[in-house]
Amino acid sequence: MAQATMDKQKLDLDAVNRDLTQADAGQVVRWAIDTFRDRVVLSSSFGAQAAVMLHLVTKVVLDVPVIFIDTGYLFPETYTFAESLTKRLKLNLHVYQPLLSPARHEALYGRQWEQGPEQLDLYNQIRKVEPMRRALRRLRASAWLAGLRHEQTDHRAALRTVGLQDGLYKVHPILNWSASDVHEYLTRHDLPYHPLHDQGYRSIGDTHTTTAVTDDAHERAGRFHGLKQECGLHLPETAEESESRDASGL
């Protein structure tokens, strides 16, 4: 595996993914840190299983920047969970918020999450995607570590360990993990689930687009009222990026 910083124009994704085929999650994180050095960031929603990636990455580099997008509509428990994990794991936390306050947003656009899929997409662009783009730009990121897993959504099922999204490398150390793998890791390291997990909230986002689900339901069944699987943070932004992803099999 490559150990020196690479120019992103020269990174051969096919070769990289072949090299990482047998790598475990910790080795993938180490590869990303060795390859991109101080241009690596980690994103966290401080959702149900957030402690896994936060622990996994900060074991390798304690001060890796952790981006937390605060939409202004998160559960109170999410804010307290983020605070407790930040203190426990000594996170280098960078909180980014939308340019519009919740009150101003609703005055200008209404309750978009109640206005159908197109307005929900616009809501996600304003409150999630734009702050994330701003964070990645200000932190001068070349690579983005994310805790996506194949079994979560149709889009994630097609991802590879290392891919491209909007000109940035996207690295997925736990892509092949199952829910039981996540549970085993949390248990082994005495890490907590989100406080709402035991109340049936298996995937946790904004208060108005998150509901509890039964134990036998898909873990993301309680998101976005069944209208969509993704909020947009982990989708290509442009048609060109989408075509590149499809062509490369990501």
Major sheet summary line: 6 strands, mixed
In the sheet with the most strands, the strands line up as 3-2-1-4-6-5
What percent of residues adopt helix (DSSP H or I)? 25-40%
Reported by name, the CATH topology is Rossmann fold
- Number of helical stretches of at least 4 residues: 9
Flag low-confidence runs: 1-9, 238-250
Secondary-structure element order, N to C: HHEHEHEHHEHEEHH
CATH architecture: 3-Layer(aba) Sandwich
Radius of gyration: 18 Å
Number of strands: 6
Overall pLDDT metric: 84
Q: Would you tell me the structural class of the helices and strands?
A: alpha/beta
Overall number of domains: 1
What attributes does this structure have?
250 residues, alpha/beta, Rossmann fold, 9 helices, 6 strands, 38% helix, disordered C terminus
Report on this structure:
The chain is globular, with a radius of gyration of 18 Å. The longest helix has 22 residues, at 117-138. It is α/β, with parallel strands linked by helices and 250 residues long. Helix content is 38%, strand content 10%. The protein has helices at 13-19, 25-36, 50-58, 76-89, 102-109, 117-138, 154-157, 179-188, 239-248; strands at 40-43, 65-69, 92-96, 143-145, 162-165, 168-171. A six-stranded mixed sheet has the order 3-2-1-4-6-5. Residues 1-9 and 238-250 have low confidence and may be disordered. It has a single domain (25-248), classed as 3-Layer(aba) Sandwich (Rossmann fold), CATH 3.40.50.
